[in-house]
Amino acid sequence: MHQQIATAIAVGGALLLLAAGVGHLRRRAHLAAVLAAQRMVPRWSHRPLAAVVAVVEVAAGAGAVAGWLTASWPLMTPASAMYAAFGVYTTVLRIRRPGTPCGCFDGDSAVSWSVVVRAWMFCGAVIVAASAPDADAAVTDRMVVGCAAILVALISWLAPQLAGVGRPVRTGGAGSRR
């Protein structure tokens, strides 16, 4: 049962990587601007790094989903490595430049500890899921895990966006325009 939960979380993370990568491919300039705002990598690398990150997100996410579908767990390794890299990067970013945007899903919200925890959670889930590759071998188990993975992906995507619900909107001093 624990491996099924870990597998659902791992596949949910893979779906998020895939979705984020597609978004970053479509808006590479936005990701490059986020990298510039973060000031963590050299200026000359913003555009090429944005393109590389987007392609690797898509490849790692698609590979992990394919690995789950075919029970070929080594295909999930790049997703775990990608989330480990995100975990390290966002930890350093949160400590050194806490107010800067994280760039997750084309958003402009500041990097938070929940983003850091999410990256490490997905990284660990892949490792646990790969330790018992036959945990969801039955068709019904695979369907349940697949549905749970979609739910995990949606919750992980929506949770940071819902963090500000109910708080007053800041206008940045512009006031209302009538």
From TrEMBL:
Q: Which UniProt keywords apply?
A: Membrane, Transmembrane, Transmembrane helix
* Protein location: Membrane
Q: Which Pfam families match?
A: MauE
| Signal peptide positions on this chain | none
Q: InterPro entries, from UniProt? A: Methylamine_util_MauE (IPR009908)
Q: What is its main location?
A: membrane
List where the protein spans the membrane: 6-25, 49-69, 75-95, 115-131, 143-160
Q: Which GO terms describe its cellular component?
A: membrane
Topology relative to the membrane: Multi-pass membrane protein
Q: Which GO terms describe its biological process?
A: methylamine metabolic process
Q: Where is the Methylamine utilisation protein MauE domain?
A: 4-129
Q: What is this protein called?
A: Methylamine utilisation protein MauE domain-containing protein
